[in-house]
Write a structure and sequence with these properties.
single chain; 441 residues; mainly beta; 15-stranded mixed beta sheet; 3-stranded mixed beta sheet; 25 strands; 12% helix
Length: 441
C-alpha cells in the first residue's frame, strides 16, 4: 500500500539515563539516534532497542558540554531510566520499579572520533527469572489465577502491577523447580475464563507485560482471549485520502498491509477451523474415551472481532470434520485437594485437569486468532498497548467515485504487538493486529 502523506508524529523525551558501573550516570539525550519500545501478547517482557552516538563529549553538571577522552564503558545488566511523551500528551515511563536492563550491547559503527552503539533492553524480571532461588519448588492448589498471582509475587517477587482475569477452573500442580516465566504460559493454555458458557467451550489465556504510563498502570497481564474481545475499542482509525480527519474517528492510518499467508494445509493440521478429536485413557477405569469438539459452537460474534470465521471453500464443509487427533492420559486421583488423607481419598476418582473440556479449546483458540493479520503505522500513540482492541476502517476496492467502507476488511482487531518508534525526525507507532473472523460487526 502507498503511504499517506502526513507530518511525523510529535513527542518529547524527558529522560534517558544509564546508570553505569564504570562510567557513572550517563545522560544519552545529546547522542540519541533512535529508540523502539516493544510489547506483545506473545512475550512475557516489554523490550526496547536504543541507538546513540558516543563522540567523546559528555554534558557537565552545569549543562554545558565537556570533553572527555574515555569511551562510554557499559556492560550487560546495567539499568536504564526512560521517560517520553507523545504528541497527545501520553507518557511511557521506564523508571523505578519499571526500569529496563541492558541485555546486550552492539557496536554498529566505529571511527576515530565517534562510535554508534546499539543496546537491547528488557525487564529486570527476566534476570530474576533465571535465579535458582526464584524457581518454583512447592505445590499449588486452587484457582489458576490465584496460583499465577502467587508465583509473580512470592517467587518472582515483582513489585509491578498485576492485571489478572479470574479463572473458572481449579488445577493442582507441582512447581518441579521450573522458572516462573515457563510455568505461567504453561498454565495459560490450561485456563478457562470465569464467564457465562465458558465451561467446555472457552479456554486460553495470554501472559504478557505492558509499559507503565508513570502511574503504575503497566505491569503483568494474565488475560483471557475471549474476555479481551469484550473490551470497547481504545481507538477508531481510518485510512483514506483526505487531509482532515472525518468525524467519529480518533486517528488516521498512515500505511497498512494485510498478511494473507494462512495456508489451507496449516488450518487442517492445526484443526483451527475443524472438529478436533481427543482419545483419553483413564487409568482408573483402564478404558479409552473418544470425544469430538466442534469449534463452530464456540465462535460467536460476542467473543470474536468479526461476524464469522473464514470458510476454506464454499463447496467443502469442514465444520463437522476432524483433521487432528490427540491422545491424553487422564490424571484421575492425581494431586487430590485437601491436607489430610481422608479428604484426599474422597477425590480419588476425580480428574484434576479435564483435557476434554480445556486443552483442545485453548489449542484451537490460539491458532484461529491469527486467521486474519494486519499491520498498520500511525503517528506515535503511547496510549495503545498489547491486548487492546482497535477499530479500523478501510475503503473498499472499487472503481466507483464514491468509496465506501469495506465490510470485509474493516472492523475490530486485537493488538498482538506494538512498536513505538522514536526518531529524531518524529514518533511513529506500528501495530500488528489480528482476528479470527471476517466482516465488520
Amino acid at each position: 500500500m502507498s503511504n499517506f502523506s502526513a507530518a511525523p508524529g510529535e513527542g518529547k523525551i524527558q529522560e534517558l539515563t544509564i546508570f553505569s558501573n564504570y562510567s557513572g550516570d550517563l545522560n544519552l539525550m545529546d547522542g540519541f539516534l533512535e529508540m523502539i519500545l516493544y510489547e506483545s501478547i506473545l512475550d512475557y517482557s516489554v523490550r526496547a532497542s536504543l541507538s546513540f552516538v558516543d563522540s567523546g563529549y559528555r554534558p557537565s553538571k552545569d549543562g554545558t558540554a565537556s570533553m572527555e577522552s574515555d569511551d562510554i564503558n557499559l556492560v550487560s545488566g546495567e539499568k536504564l531510566f526512560f521517560k517520553g511523551t507523545d504528541g497527545y500528551g501520553q507518557t511511557i515511563s521506564c523508571k523505578d520499579n519499571y526500569h529496563l536492563r541492558i541485555n546486550s550491547i552492539n557496536s554498529v559503527d566505529e571511527a576515530v572520533n565517534k562510535a554508534i552503539v546499539s543496546l537491547d533492553l528488557y525487564s529486570k524480571e527476566c534476570i530474576d527469572n533465571e535465579l535458582v532461588d526464584n524457581r518454583l519448588t512447592k505445590r499449588y492448589d486452587g484457582k489458576i489465577s490465584d496460583s499465577v498471582s502467587t508465583i509473580l509475587r512470592e517467587s518472582l517477587k515483582t513489585p509491578k502491577s498485576l492485571n489478572i482475569d479470574p479463572v473458572l477452573n481449579e488445577f493442582n500442580f507441582l512447581g518441579h523447580v521450573e522458572k516462573p516465566f515457563y510455568k505461567i504460559p504453561w498454565l495459560a493454555k490450561r485456563s478457562v475464563p470465569d464467564m457465562g458458557g465458558a465451561k467446555g467451550n472457552l479456554a486460553g489465556y495470554f501472559f504478557y507485560e505492558t509499559f507503565d504510563n508513570g502511574s503504575g498502570s503497566g505491569g503483568y497481564n494474565f488475560k483471557s482471549i475471549d474476555k479481551l474481545w469484550e473490551q470497547p475499542p481504545i481507538r477508531k482509525l481510518i485510512y483514506n485520502d483526505l487531509v482532515t480527519l472525518p468525524p467519529g474517528y480518533t486517528g488516521k492510518i498512515l500505511s497498512y498491509s494485510f498478511d494473507n499467508t494462512v495456508k489451507v494445509d496449516t488450518l487442517l493440521k492445526t484443526g483451527a477451523l475443524t472438529s478436533p478429536v481427543i482419545e483419553r485413557f483413564d487409568p482408573y477405569t483402564n478404558k479409552f474415551n473418544r470425544n469430538i469438539f466442534t469449534d463452530v459452537q464456540r465462535l460467536k460474534p460476542k467473543n470474536m472481532g468479526g461476524l464469522e470465521p473464514p470458510k476454506i471453500a464454499s463447496d467443502i464443509d469442514l465444520s463437522n470434520k476432524s483433521t487432528r487427533i490427540s491422545y491424553r492420559f487422564d490424571d484421575t486421583g492425581v494431586l487430590p485437594p485437601g491436607t489430610n488423607l481422608k479428604t484426599q481419598l474422597e477425590s480419588k476418582d476425580k480428574i484434576n485437569f479435564n483435557t476434554e473440556e480445556i486443552i483442545r479449546q485453548s489449542y484451537s483458540r490460539y491458532n484461529n486468532l491469527f486467521n486474519v493479520k494486519l499491520s498498520i503505522t500511525i503517528p506515535g500513540d503511547f496510549g495503545i498497548h498489547a491486548g487492546n482492541l482497535i477499530e479500523c476502517d478501510f475503503p473498499e476496492v472499487s472503481s466507483k467515485d464514491l468509496k465506501i467502507v469495506s465490510k470485509k476488511k474493516s472492523g475490530l482487531y486485537m493488538v498482538v504487538d506494538v512498536a513505538h518508534r522514536i526518531h529524531q525526525t518524529g514518533y511513529y507507532t506500528t501495530l500488528h493486529l489480528a482476528r479470527e473472523s471476517i466482516y465488520k460487526k
